[in-house]
Specification:
Length: 698
């Protein structure tokens, strides 16, 4: 059925676009007509009435319409090379100044006598009100069409930048919609639309761009969000169905030998660890392949649970592979597990595979794995090298899964025949959401920290108190502890007035901490140098480790009890939580000291959250609220960052409905081969090409 789809044609050849504009539009991700239709407004402005200038309220976002009567530019006397552009606008009621910083091109844009619309926050400055860096639109009565789309109605405002004006874009969308609306194919089956009370696609597109009122805009929005969630859920549903049909390994669990291991640990499992272990054992016993996500806050003890799973596999004659994102972490796991299994009566052959190994050594390990002489292999990305072949891979563990790409995660299990897979993450996702995102995975949660952990004390100080903070560190070192000092940058930057690890390392070593042993670790050092510094720190050869966020996924140093994070307002909330998770791992009271000067509302919210919360799940929920899902899932982890319009947090109910419909559809027609579903299949192939294989199975 695939037909020549008009909506796939490039916008470059539309009237009024051309090569120059199409290049800019390409930067917005718009190359085809369809992409233009799916480029949605960021907000709408009610331009049936404008606020008169004399009625403007301080500290609120408002829209005004007026005439330019003075414009000018000046240099800042405070900062060299800093320019300020000012515009005076008046309407019948009064006048106001608008200012923009460092945008010299604005000078050429405005002319006296022009009509303009400004949208921005109104603030007091030296006794008068002014608008700071407002969004603007220059009106032009001669262009009747653009004028009618931009005045006297609900007006769409798009996320655009220099080079494409709102008016131009509106007109382009309108003309293209008018011309091609009849070519739009409806991807959602009629019965789903009817059941869910959804507008059809053509209506939705028209009304998302040019709504007559708020109500119809909302309906359009819901329909488009549903569509996005629906197409997002289809592959998940497909994968789930497919997994159900696969034949996996029914591991035999040797309880006696397992108990010997568990009893030999120098701690008791928490009840959360016990519960999760029972879930994993059930999966492993079953002949269906395990697909389990293990969530647990930093320090909750996921590693030992995964180790037990690996031991189950190897006692039963299968090989287990444990993949971690960094070499240092691989080393650490290797050493710990080696210690833990040493005295066991049933032997387990352990190996460590990282890319820094000599080639000869690597080849030797490859051979041993291929011949089945290694039972448990711990390693980094080196484990997904093509050359590496297993004899009998029965279990795959992926630690810190968010540090791997989707395809990297998928590669390791392919080295066996439907092995059990355990994926671990310390970035907890709010429960309601994880069910939907990881629809094809079963989820286990370790929601309890090992007993005896002393809660970390978190304090926020301004930079002026650094001297005192340094004294505090010295006292802790005197007591035998160690400390981390974390900076946001590696090198000093011309643009940001931030402290950088390298410079501070040099300074601290000669200054405040000249009598102490300092080490440094950052991402631009060679791997081996990084590891050396961390190992020295771990072995107590350093008092202080100056670091960047490379620490985030890192070592377990129970003796480190202080972490100072400078410019803490620059870090993301999840990042702060992960960093803080490096301390509080031993029997000592630990302290996290944030040196921060938060300015914007987001930064303040982050600092407040991190200093008042310790539960990773609550922090993740807060983070999601502050950042929104787009950035939260920024690493293209599960396609959620690809959502253009749908918001899984605020529209959880739409998400659930869409997911239910997707599952129903896949159960009825797994290959999407019925006539009405062909259009779905086509759209799916286009959106997620990686799922083509999956669909053939059905
Ligand atoms: P994460 O979940 O962040 O990967 P780890 O597995 O590294 O946490 O565990 C953190 C520390 O807690 C390790 O030193 C580990 O040996 C220890 N640990 C794990 N489980 C327990 C327990 N039940 N009781 C006490 N300590 C534990
Ligand atoms: Mg871990």
């Amino acid at each position: 059925m695939p037909q020549d789809n008009k909506l796939d044609s490039p916008i470059q050849y539309l009237k009024g676009v051309g090569p120059k504009r199409s290049k800019i539009l390409k930067n917005f991700g718009i190359e085809t007509i369809e992409e233009l239709f799916y480029y949605f407004p960021r907000r709408y402005e009610d331009r049936t009435n404008f606020v008169s200038i004399s009625q403007l309220k301080e500290n609120e976002y408002q829209t005004i319409k007026g005439e330019v009567f003075i414009k000018g530019e000046r240099r800042s006397w405070r900062r060299r090379g800093f320019s300020i552009f000012q515009l005076m606008i008046r309407d019948k009621s009064g006048k106001i100044t608008a200012v923009w910083f460092n945008q010299p091109y604005l000078k050429k844009l405005f002319k006296n006598g022009q009509s303009v619309i400004l949208y921005g926050r109104v603030e007091e400055y030296e006794g008068a009100l002014q608008m700071n860096s407002p969004e603007f639109e220059v009106l032009d009565e001669k262009d009747k069409e653009a004028e009618s789309l931009s005045l006297g109605r609900m007006v769409p405002i798009y996320p655009l930048s220099e080079g494409i004006t709102q008016r131009y874009f509106r007109k382009l969308v309108k003309q293209t919609l008018d011309k091609f609306i009849s070519k739009i194919e409806e991807p959602l089956p009629y019965d789903i639309r009817k059941r869910q009370d959804l507008l059809n696609l053509a209506q939705s597109l028209i009304n998302i761009h040019f709504p007559q009122d708020k109500e119809i805009q909302q309906k359009a929005y819901q329909r488009l969000a549903f569509e996005e969630f629906f197409f997002y859920s289809l592959p998940v549903a497909l994968r789930k169905l497919q997994a159900k049909q696969k034949q996996g390994i029914a591991h035999k669990i040797k309880e006696d030998s397992l108990s010997e291991f568990i009893n030999s640990l120098n701690f008791e499992l928490t009840s959360a660890q016990e519960r999760v272990l029972a879930e994993i054992k059930n999966d492993m016993r079953s002949s269906k392949p395990m697909q389990r996500l293990l969530q647990g806050d930093v320090g909750s003890g996921k590693t030992v649970v995964a180790t037990i799973a690996a031991i189950i596999a190897s006692f039963g004659g299968w090989q287990a592979a444990f993949m971690v994102p960094t070499e240092i972490l691989a080393n650490q796991h290797f050493e710990n597990i080696q210690k833990q299994i040493k005295g066991l009566s049933k032997k387990i052959n352990l190996a460590l595979l990282t890319s820094s190994l000599e080639d000869k050594e690597k080849q030797k390990i490859y051979k041993e794995i291929r011949e089945g002489r290694i039972d448990l292999i711990i390693g980094t990305h080196a484990l997904i090298q093509e050359e590496l072949k297993f004899k009998k891979l029965g279990l795959v563990v992926i630690d810190e899964q968010h540090k791997f790409g989707v395809s990297q995660r998928a590669l390791l299990p392919k080295k066996g025949t439907n092995p059990d897979v355990l994926i671990m993450t310390a970035t907890p996702i709010p429960r309601t959401l994880s069910m939907t995102i990881y629809g094809d995975l079963d989820i286990s949660v370790i929601d309890e920290l090992p007993k005896g952990r002393i809660p970390i004390e978190t304090k926020v100080y301004p930079e002026e108190k650094l001297g005192k903070v340094y004294d505090f560190i010295k006292e802790r070192i005197k007591e035998g502890r160690q400390a981390y000092i974390v900076y946001p940058l590696i090198e000093e930057s011309d643009f940001l007035e931030l402290k950088a690890a390298q410079k501070m390392f040099a300074e601290l070593r000669k200054g405040a901490f000249k009598d102490y042993r300092l080490g440094m670790v950052h991402g631009r050092m060679k791997r081996q140098e990084q590891d050396m510094a961390m190992i020295d720190f771990k072995n107590g050869k350093l008092d202080i480790l100056v670091a960047t966020t490379v620490l985030e996924v890192g070592i377990d140093v129970a003796n480190a009890s202080v972490m100072v994070i400078e410019h803490a307002e620059r870090f993301g909330l999840a990042q702060l939580h992960q960093l803080r998770g490096r301390i509080g791992r031993g029997k000592y009271q630990s302290y996290c000291i944030l040196i921060a000067n938060p300015k914007g509302p987001d930064a303040i919210a982050r600092i407040n959250a991190i200093s008042s919360m310790s539960d990773g799940f609550l922090i993740a929920e807060e983070d999601l609220k502050i950042r929104g899902p787009g950035e939260f899932f920024g690493q293209r982890q599960h396609g959620l960052s690809e959502l253009k319009i749908a918001n899984p947090i605020t529209q959880l109910n739409i998400l659930q409905k869409a997911r239910d419909e997707a599952i129903k559809l896949i159960e009825q027609d797994p290959a999407l081969s019925s006539r009405t579903n062909l259009v779905i299949r086509e759209k799916l192939n286009k959106t997620f090409p990686e799922f083509q294989d999956l669909m053939l199975i059905g």
